[in-house]
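Researcher: Please generate the 3D structure of the following complex. Treat every line as part of one assembly.
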Amino acid sequence: TQLLEQSPQFLSIQEGENLTVYCNSSSVFSSLQWYRQEPGEGPVLLVTVVTGGEVKKLKRLTFQFGDARKDSSLHITAAQPGDTGLYLCAGIQGGSEKLVFGKGTKLTVNP
Amino acid sequence: SAVISQKPSRDICQRGTSLTIQCQVDSQVTMMFWYRQQPGQSLTLIATANQGSEATYESGFVIDKFPISRPNLTFSTLTVSNMSPEDSSIYLCSAKRYRDRGTRTDTQYFGPGTRLTVL
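Model: Done. Output below.
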């Protein structure tokens, strides 16, 4: 059983479109991170959210942590080809030092 | 952010041989981890590298197959022993730094990965 369910698994859109990626769990997380990974590279941290209901913006990316700290979303506005990559959500449960990853969303933005 | 380097970046190995991957962090970190990422998949934690003591392995991973060392706060190695084609994967080193300035949480960084192909 996957602790963090990410959806969609694959997403192919045109430049300029908006999209949302979801990360859901039945468990509570003390913090949740979003990473982006490009082929041949390691994941790069985009954001960490820790407070229920928290919203963080990073240019065209908006991250939200659910009120109950069980889910999160990543919304990209006006996607660009440079946004193409594997987006991973990962969470830490209270009392643990280990980061648990979702399966990832492979995003392709076509010019 | 912490800068993490890994060597080698990629290798092609024969079945039955072993490969040691090195991980160097540019600053002192609290914890170091090793992950495996199979093609098109997400990351699976292999073990937590503990300084000066035996690593803590996750279910499905054992020390005989994946011996790990961490002699100091900034360096760790992972060995993939007696390799088979099923071990072909990307192996990623990760490090956690305690409460980066301006944040309320520990931040975990990743190296670029080592792409291993076993023939």
